[in-house]
Amino acid sequence: LMFLASLVACGFALYGLADFPSQQLAVLGVALAIAALTSQFQLTIPGTSIRISAKELSVFLGTIWLGVPGAVLLAVATSFARIGLSDKPRFDRFFSVFNDVTAGFISAIVFYFTLSNLAGFNAKYVADQPVEPLWLVAGLGISATVHFFAVRILNSLFAFLKQKEVVYESLQTQLLRTVVPYLVNLANVLLFHFLFTFFGLAFGWVVL
């Protein structure tokens, strides 16, 4: 089922590429390369179990600048780039890929649905139609929340179906380990978005 869901997401993304101008395709190519490279590394905050990955950063930036197709393809790139770094069983690793792709697809749709209904946005990606910062932050916050819960619900469902033992953690530990990385990535997404907006894509990619 997860494979079919991710297959639908990828089909939608590839279909959407037909409307991409050459500049957007070039941006996508650079983004895929950077995302695949940076997602192989994680920053661990000293003295904690908090790990910051560029995976969500890539997906959310892709959502803003490249629309739903960009979000899906970047989710594919970042997930497959990390698949060989995991010590999980092979089936579990591929499930993680399908999970990330599906969550990225859903959250990107929610992002543009939110902007469409709250801000009257009607373009395919933010790069085509500027959005007031307040609505951008609101849409991104809602999208990230959906992504967060989609990943965790699908992981819990997978564990239940496989009858895997669930390791329960304290609420504080769960919040630190899962919510903090999202907040850090959201802050970075906004930072890079405004860098791209004010200084151009070339400068933004250099900084990234």
Rounded radius of gyration (Å)? 17 Å
Strand content: under 5%
Count all strands and give the number. 2
* Mean pLDDT reading: 79
How far the N terminus sits from the C terminus, by CA atoms, comes to 35 Å
Structural notes for this entry:
The protein has 7 helices and 2 strands. It is mostly helical and 208 residues long. The protein has a two-stranded antiparallel sheet with strand order 1-2.
Brief summary:
This protein has 208 residues and is an all-alpha fold. The chain has helices at residues 2-16, 22-38, 55-82, 90-119, 133-161, 171-199, 201-207; strands spanning 42-44, 51-53.
Which key terms come to mind for this protein?
single chain; 7 helices; mainly alpha; 2 strands
Secondary structure topology:
Layout: H1 2-16, H2 22-38, E1 42-44, E2 51-53, H3 55-82, H4 90-119, H5 133-161, H6 171-199, H7 201-207
Antiparallel strand pairs: 1-2
